[in-house]
Design goal:
Distance between the termini: 45 Å
Number of helices: 13
Shape: globular
Order of helices and strands: HHHHHEHEEHHHHEHHH
Radius of gyration: 22 Å
Strand order of the largest sheet: 1-4
C-alpha cells in the first residue's frame, strides 16, 4: 500500500506586479530627475547673480557639507522604507563627535581607532532603537523621540559645558575631513561609496528587497515568511552605524566640537529622504534620491548665505519642500491606485 504524503501549502510570495513595479520605477526616476533639474536651475540662477558661487572652493564646500547629511540620509532610507523613522540620528552624531573627540584629544590615535569607536557608539544607539521598535513593539516615533532626548542629555552630561578644539585633535583625523584623493575630498568619496554599496544591496539581493516588501505590506511580508523583526532591527542598526560614522566625520571635518553640535539635523535628514522620493509610508524610494535630496537642501543653505538672505528662510524652505514632497507622494499613490484598479478591472 502506497503512502500518500501531503505536501505543505506553498507560502505566498511578496512580489509587485510588473505593471505596478514599472509605474513605481517611472515615478522614482521622474522625482530624482526633478530634484536634479531643480539643483541645476538653483545653481545657474545663483551663479548669474553671484559668479563666485561656482568657484572651486564654493563647490568643494557644498559637497563637503552635503556628504555628512547624505550619509545620514542613506541610513534613514533603510528605516523609512520599512514604515518606520529614526529621529535620534542628529543626537547620535553629536554624541559621537564629542565622545570620539574627547577620547583622541591630546593623543596620537589614528583614523581607524576614531572610526571604530564612533561606529560602535552609533551601533549601540541603533541597536537600542531597533530592539524597542522591532521586538518590543513600541512605535518608532515614540522610541526615537525618547532616545533623542536621552542621548542629548547624556551628551550634555559628558560635555559639562566644555568644547573640543581642533588643536587637540590628531592631524591624521583632521586630514580625513579636509584631505583629498587626486583632488577629490575624502568625505564625498566615502559618502558615494556607502550610497552605491547600500543601493546595490537593496536592488540586487533578496534580503535587501525584503525591506521594501515590509514597507509595502507588512501583513503580506509576514505571510511570505519574511523575518520582519530582524529586518527592522537591521535597518536601525545600519542607520546607527552610519550615524556613528557621520559623527566621526563631523569631528574630522570641523575639529572644534561643542555638546550636541548636530541639534536639529534629524529634521533635515527626514526632509532629505522624503524630498528625495522615499515615501514616508514606506515601501518606495532609493538611497540615490535621498542623497540628491541632501545635496539639494545643502545647496539651498549655501545659496542663502551667498545671497545674504536671512538663514531663517532655509528652515522655512526645507519645511515647504517637506510638505510638497509628502503631498506629491499622496497624490502619486492615489493616482497609481486608480490606474492599477482600472487595469485590474479591464483584465478581470
Amino acid at each position: 500500500m502506497t503512502a500518500v504524503v501531503e505536501q505543505p501549502p506553498a507560502q505566498p510570495k511578496v512580489k509587485a506586479g510588473g505593471g505596478e513595479r514599472g509605474l513605481i520605477d517611472l515615478v522614482l526616476r521622474f522625482r530624482e530627475a526633478g530634484i536634479l533639474g531643480a539643483l541645476v536651475v538653483l545653481v545657474a540662477v545663483t551663479t548669474v547673480i553671484n559668479p563666485r558661487f561656482l568657484s572651486a572652493q564654493g563647490v568643494e564646500d557644498i559637497f563637503l557639507n552635503a556628504s555628512i547629511l547624505a550619509l545620514l540620509a542613506v541610513g534613514q532610507t533603510l528605516v523609512v522604507v520599512t514604515r518606520n523613522i529614526d529621529l535620534s540620528v542628529g543626537s547620535v552624531v553629536g554624541l559621537v563627535a564629542f565622545v570620539v573627540g574627547d577620547f583622541v584629544s591630546g593623543t596620537q590615535h589614528g583614523v581607524l581607532v576614531a572610526v571604530a569607536l564612533g561606529v560602535a557608539i552609533g551601533a549601540a544607539c541603533g541597536l537600542v532603537n531597533g530592539l524597542l521598535v522591532s521586538f518590543c513593539g513600541v512605535p518608532a516615533l515614540v522610541v526615537t523621540l525618547g532616545t533623542l532626548y536621552v542621548i542629548q542629555g547624556l551628551n550634555h552630561y559628558i560635555a559639562h559645558g566644555e568644547q573640543i578644539s581642533a588643536a587637540e585633535v590628531p592631524g591624521a583625523i583632521l586630514s580625513l575631513g579636509n584631505g583629498d584623493l587626486l583632488g577629490i575630498p575624502y568625505l564625498p568619496l566615502i559618502s558615494v561609496a556607502v550610497m552605491l554599496a547600500v543601493g546595490y544591496y537593496l536592488r540586487s539581493y533578496s534580503s535587501g528587497r525584503e525591506f521594501y516588501a515590509i514597507g509595502s505590506s507588512p501583513e503580506a511580508a509576514r505571510l511570505a515568511g519574511i523575518p520582519i523583526r530582524r529586518r527592522v532591527l537591521t535597518a536601525y542598526l545600519a542607520a546607527g552605524v552610519l550615524a556613528g560614522l557621520a559623527g566621526t566625520l563631523w569631528l574630522a571635518r570641523f575639529g572644534t566640537v561643542v555638546a550636541d553640535p548636530a541639534r536639529g539635523w534629524e529634521l533635515d535628514v527626514v526632509a532629505a529622504v522624503v524630498v528625495g522620493g522615499v515615501a514616508i509610508v514606506g515601501g518606495v524610494g532609493t538611497v540615490y534620491g535621498a542623497a540628491l535630496g541632501a545635496l539639494l537642501i545643502t545647496t539651498i543653505g549655501s545659496v542663502l548665505v551667498v545671497l545674504k538672505i536671512n538663514p531663517f528662510w532655509q528652515e522655512a524652505i526645507v519645511g515647504l519642500l517637506l510638505l510638497l514632497a509628502i503631498s506629491a507622494d499622496r497624490l502619486v499613490a492615489l493616482r497609481l491606485a486608480r490606474v492599477l484598479r482600472k487595469r485590474n478591472v479591464r483584465h478581470g
